[in-house]
Amino acid sequence: MSQTPEVSLNTLGPKSRLSNTKLEAVTESFIEFYSQNHSKPKKFNRGWLILCPFHNDSDPSLAIYKDGTTWCFSCKKAYKLEAVLRAYGFWEGEFKGDPELKPSFTPKEEKDWIIIDQKQYFYGDGERTFIRVRIDFENTQTRQRKKAFYFYKPTIKNGKQELELVKGWVPLILYRLNELENAQEVFFVEGEKCVDALAEVGLVATTLPIGAQVKINMELYQALMPLKGKIVYILPDADKAGWQYARTIRQALANLGTQAYIVPIPKIGEKSDIADFIELQSLIGITKEEIKKIILSWVQPFKRVATLKLIPSVEARILKENLPPTPEALDKDGVIYPGVLLFAGAPKVGKTFFLLQKSFEIAERGYKVVYLALDESKETFLMKLEALGKLDGHPNLLFYTRDDALEARLPLKLNEGGLELLNEVAETYNPDLLVVDIWENIRPQVDPKEKKDPYRQDYEAISLLRTLARKIRTIIVCHHLKKAIESDPLNRALGSVGLIGATDSIVILDRKRGDARGNLLCVSRYAQEVELALEFNEGRWTVLGEAREVEIADEQRRILEAIEELGGRAMPKEIAEIMGKNPSTVRVLLSRMLKKGIVRKDTKGAYLLCKDKDNVNAINAINGVNGVNGVNDPAPAPKAFTPTMENKQGCKRLEALKNQDSKESVYTVYSVYTDYINEDQSTDPNLQASQENQEEVIVQIEDEPCPKCQSKIWKVSKETWTKGKGFGACLECQRVMWINLANAKII
Question: Which end of the chain is more exposed for a tag (fewer CB within 10 A), N or C?
């Protein structure tokens, strides 16, 4: 005996009128009644699947949603809720008319056109339900056919369930959405007819109620979200618009991180589609199972499991957020970065001295360093340590010389046992930095009979070292430069470009024989390219600053010397002739010097020096030409400036200095000449701004004491403080040098 739940249409009366507020309660009550008296319904999304009472149904195909909408996937029809409830005996009220829920519309009559077919397609996402109606027309004269689509929304009006026409927009919902949930592979096609045809042969498929005019936007992404994580095969219609639609859908799915492939189908006619193909196969006697196998064979190549697991670019931001911070340089000058670093220079220019200085600097910072001096005897290596004042060594630095290698008779070539030895060093000593000086000593031995191209040889050689990268933070290989001149400085490293391409950083040390000055070009994956100016003196390298800035300082000094040689007054063309420079270049430099107050300009366009001869020495100190050379090696302070009152009009601040002691005068000259104002230019706003930038700032730098007096208190200009680096003067001994203000604080 059947049980009727408390809430039912019977309790509302046999002639009760439906309303939207009652539908959910009535539907849930009916489902409870159905499970007690028939079988347990299949739950999905916001509805249930039950046996359809309007055809001989053995597999539940009638969907009932909480809002009272029904749809039979076998009949492909929507039924009125009252008809379903009456058919199962849940409601004994009066019901008359067609149980099918049809759109009530009168299509616009056109001359010679008749309706030949009408189909309904159900769209629902659990929150919304729609019926899409397709109407096929035929011209009685030409037999030409066309189609039209309309969207309807089930609703309750005047107590009756009906379909209301939706105007002005097309809701983007995947067709047959409820079938996609448990599917791992889905076919995406254009049009409901194609989806239904694939479903007939046992394949899960879907589409959107919009064709080639679809655009990639947030609404499309939301509609395609149920396909995320699945493999989607897109079967395009055999025309230009069909392929464009397929490409758009593939791009949108790719942006969602979904694997999507376009699978071409056989063209059997103009604008044919997969439904036409399936229909043709059926006509020639091919069974549904065989048709399914044919279609699956098309996608088989896409199912190959790739050994190389590619990463979707849409995951780049997430991967970046989960990566550790960008590696920082091990040294204070930003030269030594993690990875494999190629350090190249000409023979006997001081490569080993530079690397040793850096090794001790890095060791003093707390890193463990192993230095393999494979090109040095024990005697010469110790002599270099003594020249650097490092004969007492450091607990964090270990070394190994050529003599040790010869005595042990160990194979050093990477392909002959050298790689295993380096691996032992990594596991035993756990270094942060490994220096191999020089690369040729461990470079893999190449069999002359093997015809390998140089690029491949060099790339493979560096790749062997890369195997140690997980155990050693930075590996430096010291190498030589070519004798030939290259347009790109990086190509000067001896060997092929494979050597450069395989490394993470390249550092080129360039110094002419007999010249103390040199340049250091640093190129790394982890930082911007930088070129530093260096000076080599008795085995010790000193960083003068960025090469371009030092070069400008040198040129300014030469200009001052040229003006002095010309009697203290000279035209730009005369200066250019003495310097051997282009007059335009000299004018640019003079303009900069004029703004800084280093030179003066008279009304006839000639440039002059200040009358005090000592000004040249003071200006040299400003630009770091003399003073900066003592960054690591103590040197005499610049000559004290003795102010004179002969030029009161041009140098207004000199009078304030005449009673100060010599120590203070040495630094104050920096402000005097950078703030210099010619009477004729005193109203220049650019010059006034320059004055403001030269205000003094007193800072403390813990990690950069003065090499002369060890004081950590420095005086710098406001402009230098803003830049974070530049020239400063020690407050204790007035030493002028290039300093880094990254870790400085104002006091």
Answer: N
